[in-house]
Amino acid sequence: MAERVVIEARWDPILGDWVLVSNVREFRPWRPRGCPFCPGSPETGWGWRVLVIENAFPMLVPNPPTGPRSDFPFISVPGRGRCFVVVETPRHDVDDLSDLSASDLADVLETLQILFEELSKDPAIVYALWFRNKGEEVGVSLTHPHSQVYALPFIPNKVLREMRNCYRFWARSGRCLLCEVRDRELEAGERVVCRTRFFAAFVPFWAKWPFEIHVHPLRHLESLRYASREELEDLARCLRAVLQGLRRVFGKPMPYVAVLHEPPLRGSYPWFHTHLEIYGMYRVSGRLKYAGGSETGGGVFTYDSTPEVAAKMLRSALEVPDHGSEDKR
Amino acid sequence: MAERVVIEARWDPILGDWVLVSNVREFRPWRPRGCPFCPGSPETGWGWRVLVIENAFPMLVPNPPTGPRSDFPFISVPGRGRCFVVVETPRHDVDDLSDLSASDLADVLETLQILFEELSKDPAIVYALWFRNKGEEVGVSLTHPHSQVYALPFIPNKVLREMRNCYRFWARSGRCLLCEVRDRELEAGERVVCRTRFFAAFVPFWAKWPFEIHVHPLRHLESLRYASREELEDLARCLRAVLQGLRRVFGKPMPYVAVLHEPPLRGSYPWFHTHLEIYGMYRVSGRLKYAGGSETGGGVFTYDSTPEVAAKMLRSALEVPDHGSEDKR
């Protein structure tokens, strides 16, 4: 349909953010037979426990074919970067990350550490965005457990907004805003979901998604890259509990989106620390939450219960047995 | 489940935006029998052609029960405002706005003008956000044609971001950024969808959604409130064409979200003008676009074709007959 391959980032001067544009799908009508993420597929090979592979349909590539453009308001840069798939386990029939053992899950996190470290050496890459989509309700077609990493030539808009506000707070008070929020949430307690030795999970006071859970380190851990193996295993335990909670609330898998808000790959950020955000998409009523006109068109999220009720439901859910996939440990 | 009625706006100090929180649904387990928007229902009565009614489950009310809160970082204000449903036609079996005659559609727009004018007199209300969700894929359960207006005590975050960038551009150049963008898009031509006497519709260079269409006035029309009847009828024609295009592209209704980006209800904005944004949610491949981790978690939209291809498809679609609902005119 298109005439040439386009892989670029276009600048929206009205909203002030970048959009990734890539029409590689139109040129590569590739359809895998069987699961492309299972061991022994053309892309995966054998003998791994966690595997990082390049996305077959990348939004970003190391050497994009498109040049920059600067005739205002049409500003674009080549889509320089990488798109990775993190295949989190060789086992196809696992429902969720929470079905991995804490140690296996810590291995996944350690794989991210290594990938981030590697990416930080590439001067063209500014930021590594890890995210995970779970459930066909959020568009997931390949059910083999996997997440993604976009190695970006810019800081994602949402992280940039957070950084801006964190920096302002720090300049005024000398405190990390994220530490402040975590401490006040732990003090208040009513929105806390669980707490492990080094991490805490809570539904923030201003949750936008029905079962939105933020996982913070208890110390000011700037980046996941600086976490010890002991901390990674603890984070794995915290994450397992939270994700089991999401599945237990309604006694069935809940679609969610998870994202890691790291600082940029290079630089020092005493005013910002890494944290994980998980957006469980079922409303308190059990029905799917959609981002409609208010959210998508206006940027105004509507929460039709209270974060306190969601946190309470999650805490109660943590006390009932989990019904994961059969081979859960 | 909850202990008390909560209707408030909570401030997210990390992202810097407001979230509407309302648990009225938990206290009013109301289920309509039959369509609540058809003439003769308890909410609607008879004898209207366009009807504005209050939302049965409001996120905002004139006299919210909740007080403000200011123990940082937990900041909230009462959810003072109004939530309206605009029932756009008495006819239940109409698929979309484009099935109304241009004159009937202009009546809908005129109704908005009157509502906005009325709301502008209420000092508690800062902004009127009109939006429209279409299709069950975006969560619409009531198919009787309707849209919504949130009368808000703050400027929606997305509009605020636009206003900020428009103001900066104006301060530097003396020009309205939105006028600049529209003029350059019309000049370039390749992303223009259609043009009527007073309005133009184009897929912006930095479209975030697959069939994202922006409809701009050809003059610097600050607010829809200042449009003449002649302009409203022309806008109705432009809007009908665009929405028919969306339905024709794949020969079936396309889910979409539409939103009107007005300036705030009071004040003068020589650097900002009203425009309509429509996000058609099918990708060029015909499959539904989901906002996943990259979009929802990072604020980074991915466009897996090019806006130029989408615009071309829409232009071609405008040339084939439309198969709307039976009673279209």
- Low-pLDDT sequence parts of chain A: none
Identify the biggest protein-protein contact and residues per side. Answer: A-B, 86 and 86 residues
- Give the oligomeric state: homodimer
Structural class by helix and strand composition of chain A:
alpha+beta
The CATH homology group name of the largest domain in chain A: HIT-like
CATH fold description of the largest domain in chain A: HIT family, subunit A
Order of helices and strands of chain A: EEHEEEEHEEHHEEEHEEHEH
Helix content bin of chain A? 25-40%
Biggest sheet descriptor of chain A: 9 strands, antiparallel
Calculate Rg of chain A over CA atoms.
20 Å
Give the strand order, joined by hyphens, for the main sheet of chain A: 3-6-8-7-12-13-11-10-9
CATH class of the largest domain in chain A: Alpha Beta
Mean pLDDT of chain A: 94
| Strand content range of chain A | 15-25%
Q: What is the end-to-end distance of chain A?
A: 48 Å
- What sort of overall outline of chain A do the alpha carbons produce when their principal axes are compared? globular
CATH architecture of the largest domain in chain A: 2-Layer Sandwich
